[in-house]
Design a protein that fits this description.
With 296 residues, the protein is an alpha/beta fold. The chain folds into 2 domains: 64 residues, Chemotaxis receptor methyltransferase CheR, N-terminal domain (Chemotaxis Receptor Methyltransferase Cher, domain 1, Orthogonal Bundle), CATH 1.10.155.10; 209 residues, 3-Layer(aba) Sandwich (Rossmann fold). 44% of the residues lie in helices and 20% in strands. It is built from 11 helices and 10 strands. The strands form 2 sheets. It has a 7-stranded mixed sheet with strand order 6-2-1-7-8-10-9. Strands 3-5-4 form a 3-stranded antiparallel sheet. α6 links the parallel β1 and β2. α1 runs parallel beside α3, α3 crosses α4 and α5 crosses α11. The protein starts with 12 loop residues before the first helix and ends with a helix.
Length: 296
């Protein structure tokens, strides 16, 4: 039995404030009042798990040890995800974004396609992106494809890099996709090597100014809510700068850029709102499109 329980652990409002402040200072993650109940519950659960008598002891531990701090932070990061979690997003990727990229880059050599999964969690999102590319991209072998998958959580990235998932995680996938892109494994399925090779998994905190090169499309699903308004704006500006002209920025269904000063163009496809960086050259893309159609 554990030495302490949730009911006996001492945790004052002041200690919660200090823990919250330390997290924002070190990781820039801002746990606002809308997540107060979630935050206090997770802290109490961690105290119970570690057998700590109260918040003061937890503060001492996470201040003294980076390993302890990261282990604690992991408990506060919601890793809720699934394959093709938002079908409308992947439909937009297939029907709108990829055709535009093919038109825009028809004359380039090499033809590069780079997509960033920002906040990739345990890997379901970048693998879903890779599968969509393989299914939808014409002459995929003629492209240099890279999916950059980043997350602050080392534990989540280790899971993602393994590419192993339980059967229940893949129940919604059509049989053809399951057969094409996964192999049976001991406790479920393993992502095939050709899909795994398309993805680079990198630990990254989005507030850090890291050069990622030019990107054609950025997925950032339910991640910006973890940052203060000021930091969200800074991250959005970095995303905007990283995107190619005509590139797309994708948010979760409940998120919006309606009050953001960053000048994305909203595009509505099948009820899903995505955002486009202005600047592509329509005449050039139309010419490429005509040539592509003529080659069919």
């Amino acid at each position: 039995m554990r030495a302490q329980s949730i009911s006996t652990a001492r945790l004052s409002e002041s200690e919660l404030d200090h823990i919250r402040g330390l997290i924002e200072q070190r990781s820039a993650i801002f746990l606002d009042s809308s997540r107060e109940r979630f935050f206090s519950t997770r802290v109490r659960e961690y105290l119970e798990e570690k057998g700590l008598p109260g918040g003061a002891e937890l503060l001492n531990r996470i201040r003294a040890s980076s390993v302890e701090y990261e282990a604690f932070l992991e408990t506060l990061l919601t890793q809720e995800t699934s394959f093709f979690r938002y079908p409308a997003v992947f439909e937009a990727l297939e029907s709108r974004i990829l055709p535009e990229v093919q038109e825009r880059k028809f004359w380039q050599s090499p033809r590069t396609l780079r997509i960033w999964s920002a906040g990739c969690s345990t890997g379901e999102e970048p693998y879903s992106i890779a599968i969509t590319l393989c299914d939808a991209l014409k002459f995929a072998e003629a492209w240099e494809i890279e999916i950059l998958a980043t997350d602050i959580s080392r534990r989540a990235l280790r899971h993602a890099e393994r590419g192993a998932y339980a059967k229940r995680s893949l129940e919604t996938l059509p049989t053809a996709r399951l057969d094409n892109y996964f192999t049976p494994a001991k406790h479920g399925y393993q992502v095939r090597p050709r899909i795994r090779r398309m993805i680079s998994f990198v630990q990254m905190n989005l507030v850090e100014s890291v050069y990622v090169g030019k990107i054609d499309c950025i997925f950032c699903m339910n991640v910006l809510m973890y940052f203060s308004e000021q930091r969200r704006l800074s991250i959005l500006r970095r995303f905007y700068d990283a995107l190619e002209p005509g590139g797309y920025f994708l948010l979760g269904h409940s998120e919006t850029l309606s009050h953001s000063p960053v000048q994305f163009e909203p595009v509505l496809i099948g009820g899903y709102r995505l955002y486009r960086k202005p600047g592509a050259k329509p005449a050039e893309t139309r010419r490429a499109a005509a040539l592509v159609e003529g080659a069919q």
